[in-house]
Amino acid sequence: MTKKDGGTLVIIGGAEDKTGECEILREFFSLAGGRKSRLNVLSTASEDPEAGDQYRRIFLDMGAEEVRVLAVQNRKEANQAQFFRFFDDNSGIFFTGGDQLRITGILGGSILGTALHRAYVTGAIVAGTSAGASAMSETMLVGGLDDATPKKEIIRMAPGLGLLNGVVVDQHFAQRGRIGRLLAAVAHNPYILGVGIDEDTAIVVRESGSFKVIGSGAVTVIDGKQVSHSNVSESDSDQSLALTDVCLHLLARDYGFHLKERYVMMPGTKEENK
Amino acid sequence: MTKKDGGTLVIIGGAEDKTGECEILREFFSLAGGRKSRLNVLSTASEDPEAGDQYRRIFLDMGAEEVRVLAVQNRKEANQAQFFRFFDDNSGIFFTGGDQLRITGILGGSILGTALHRAYVTGAIVAGTSAGASAMSETMLVGGLDDATPKKEIIRMAPGLGLLNGVVVDQHFAQRGRIGRLLAAVAHNPYILGVGIDEDTAIVVRESGSFKVIGSGAVTVIDGKQVSHSNVSESDSDQSLALTDVCLHLLARDYGFHLKERYVMMPGTKEENK
């Protein structure tokens, strides 16, 4: 239930404000060093090679020193030797939306993927929105039905980038009616903490293993550690899941949560981080 | 958190099977006396005067002794003196879907509404689907945003028929992404138990104050009695709600719940009812 070694994650529920105050993108920019930041936008999740360009423009407008866009489209590209130290001079790496399976299918185990992990471990801020948010955790939701009764086969899970342990992240959470698929994920292993992030909302996860909510929506935390009964193993694929004594926290801006100890941090609580 | 005096309620999340096994409608038919049942279908929720006809045909096909349809469309009609003992010989009363505000706006305090309460108190089975389900409780959800971040102004509540106390019912629950509005309702007064019923799913509420789930989907119970923190009073209308330590139960077919004592009843648990 902890972050692996490394810096700070900014995990965004998709559809973040890009034209107004840009609270979330500005927070990432600021954490990555503000005007001294050297950023890389990774649009591997998207088949559109220009998917990263809007973020590049936004971060340059904010005053970033350097913003590169990397639109790696396949494993051959991801395995180029030149990528070995590609992120070493980056203070922030931003994953766009698209399909999380493209992120892991293309980067997983590649030279570029290894470079990403090293950059993260040595302190680069890693952010991801939508598919880029889902890919952060060790086990990720690849897909699932929206607005659906929780059944065990409404979701598909797969190994993610592994930057966050013990957590399954879902995005566009309220807007696409995804409580059912997050409950289904937690039912598979109640040890896992489910974190559902609304659109234009993000969690900033710190080294200590706690996060704070920013943005306009809510973050729903599904904690299964007190689950007293589940029918997940014996239920048929077309049967509804049963899951009792799930603890749910609805968190708004400035609320926080300690992932390891599993408690809510009220607004104004002193960060335990450096 | 108890039922008022009276018989049994069948509260249906909408879109119940009408062409296959008809599990839910058959359960209502059976509870109301099967082939000896004398039923009344109330389509007041709908502006379509023929909204009750399909239910009439279904219950007649099942073998009901008598099925009447009453499509009262306004208060003048509802206040006809002939309605004073209208339901006295009915063993079951079925509310169709439509708009729950039509049910309470037209029946509330009328002669027909009074007759309904007397029939219920003297043992008639009362069922309602969709809008007819929402109208059952003392305070009902009149409307609200689907697939939305919980904020206090995304919902509207009003006094319902008052057949069930201490509970707010929502319907089409998973299918329309309504966890946000049910959490918002519970945030207003965590004493209230939120009960979200999926489509083709129902709860059968017994005199003892416990219910059992029937049908193909799930029932989500939101129990706020352990809520440790809420921002409902100080949050602005456009702010997301925060609500911590909500207890959530996901219940499938044959699971039950005791409304008064607030505990889950496993499948096979002996009914405490007659």
What does this structure look like?
- The structure is a homodimer of 274-residue chains.
- By secondary structure, chain A is α/β, with parallel strands linked by helices.
- Chain A has one domain (9-263): Class I glutamine amidotransferase (GATase) domain (Rossmann fold), CATH 3.40.50.
- The first copy, chain A, is 20% helix and 28% strand.
- Chain A contains seven helices and 16 strands.
- In chain A, strands 3-2-4-5-1-10-11-15-16 form a nine-stranded mixed beta sheet. The first copy, chain A, has a five-stranded mixed beta sheet with strand order 8-9-12-14-13, with helices on one face.
- In chain A, a hairpin with a 4-residue loop joins strand 15 and strand 16 (263-265).
- The mean pLDDT of chain A is 94.
- The A-B interface holds A 146-150, 174-177, 179-180, 183, 198, 201, 216-218, 222, 228-229, 231, 235, 238-253, 255, 264, 266 and B 146-150, 174-177, 179-180, 183, 198, 201, 216-218, 222, 228-229, 231, 235, 239-253, 255, 264, 266.
Q: What keyword list fits this structure?
A:
homodimer; alpha/beta; Rossmann fold; 9-stranded mixed beta sheet
